[in-house]
UniProtKB/TrEMBL annotation:
One Gene Ontology molecular-function label: aminomethyltransferase activity
Protein name stated in the entry: aminomethyltransferase
Reactions performed catalytically: N(6)-[(R)-S(8)-aminomethyldihydrolipoyl]-L-lysyl-[protein] + (6S)-5,6,7,8-tetrahydrofolate = N(6)-[(R)-dihydrolipoyl]-L-lysyl-[protein] + (6R)-5,10-methylene-5,6,7,8-tetrahydrofolate + NH4(+)
Entry keyword set: Aminotransferase, Transferase
GO biological process, one term: glycine catabolic process
Length: 395
């Protein structure tokens, strides 16, 4: 997710529904048009689905070199304690999120999620600790709701601001080499580092993170300087502009869940295979055990194991299996045992890939199941995630 996850549309699916209100535009809107992007409505914004190179080339180029994404539709929220004590903000936010924020070092960030009283995932997000404040990035479709949820549950002496800056993501194995030409200090950053960096004289907040499974960076840049920074990056031979379509196929190959598709308030983190993100200090026996919405449900599921789980799926044929296809244990007869939540063709894999939920008894890798597509049942095999190994810089 953002400095993390953006929601993205499936390349074969219609754009996400939006209201009748005029679409918002990101600070890079004019640049998208000049680059010949196919624009679509998404989460209330006009966003580039793909550019003239096409989804396939954009996807493969990101895996081989570097792709530049506009993710300015994401919500960036600054949490600033009036006392100046960031630990106060961390303690307050821990009451809403099952991760260790109090122990998060300055200049680092963590992936987490807002949970509800039933243990469901209201949104997944990133939290960074910076001098004097926390920086939270939420998904585009949940921006208004996420801001309202935080404001309603955090103390009044914790100031909240929706940051108006643009957010761009430079992703791929050549990303570090490219960005270092404009900001040499970024080259030594590790995965999940965050720091203030000047790029072309613009004060930026850079994190070494992204949602493609590749090494890369997300760059928060003042809106009025966003186009200049984006154009400077695109001027490098290794960089290609990439739209929402390839963003979706990249995160699917990386086994990364999309809120509103693979995870939602009806999904708890354990069955979503996201228990790894729950910090040890917030688990049973931890120094600050529980204390977040739905803690009893989530921690009990961690101990007993979930009744169902999100898994990777590899169709045996060449036909992609899309979201919402029901899953069956047998080739004929019986009731559905699960469903596909994301699916499409994996350009790097060279074959269709999917994710979905199955009963725990059917989640062992190699288990054969069936998806119903246009009245026919197609065989799939449960597969470990990710489909493509992650390229993050850990050290």
């Amino acid at each position: 997710m953002s400095l993390q996850a953006a929601g993205a549309v499936s390349p074969a699916a219609p754009a996400a529904p939006v209201s009748a209100d005029p679409l918002a535009q990101t600070p890079l809107h004019a640049l998208h048009l000049r680059l010949g992007a196919k624009m679509v409505p998404f989460a209330g914004y006009a966003m580039p689905l793909q550019y003239p190179a096409g989804l396939l080339k954009e996807h493969l180029h990101t895996r081989a070199a570097a792709g530049l994404f506009d993710v300015s539709h994401m919500g960036q929220i600054a949490l600033t304690p009036r006392s100046g004590d960031v630990a106060e903000a961390a303690r307050a936010l821990e009451a809403l999120i099952p991760i260790d924020i109090l122990g998060l070092p300055e200049g680092r960030q963590r992936y987490g999620f807002l949970t509800d009283e039933a243990g469901g995932i209201l949104d997944d997000l990133m939290v960074a600790r910076l001098p004097g404040r926390l920086h939270v990035v939420v998904n585009a479709a949940n921006k208004a709701a996420g801001f309202a949820h935080l404001r309603a549950h955090l103390p009044d002496d914790l100031d909240m601001t929706l940051v108006p800056d643009a957010l761009i993501a430079l992703q791929g194995p050549k990303a570090a080499e490219v960005l270092a030409r404009l900001a040499p200090e970024t080259e030594v950053m590790r995965f999940m580092d965050v720091r203030a960096v000047a790029i072309l004289g613009a004060p930026c907040l850079v994190s070494r993170s992204g949602y493609t499974g590749e090494d890369g960076f997300e760059i928060s840049v003042p809106a009025e300087r966003a186009e200049a920074v984006a154009e400077a990056l695109l001027a490098e031979a290794e960089v290609l502009p990439v739209g929402l379509g390839a963003r979706d196929s990249l995160r699917l190959e990386a086994g990364l869940p999309l809120h509103g598709a693979d995870i939602d308030p009806g999904t708890n983190p354990v069955e979503a295979s996201l228990a790894w993100a729950i910090s040890p200090t917030r688990r049973r026996g931890g120094a600050r055990e529980g204390g977040f919405p739905g803690a009893d449900t989530i921690l009990a599921a961690m101990e007993a194991g979930p009744s169902r789980r999100r898994v990777g799926l590899r169709p045996e044929g060449r036909a992609p299996v899309r979201a919402d296809a029901p899953l069956f244990a047998a080739e004929a007869g019986g009731e559905p045992v699960g469903r596909v939540t994301s699916g499409g063709f994996g350009p790097s894999v060279g074959a269709p890939v999917a994710m979905g939920f199955l009963p725990a008894a059917l989640t062992a890798p190699g288990t054969r199941i069936f998806a119903e597509v246009r009245g026919q049942r197609l065989p799939l095999v449960v597969s470990p995630l990710p489909f493509v190994p992650a390229g993050f810089k850990r050290g």
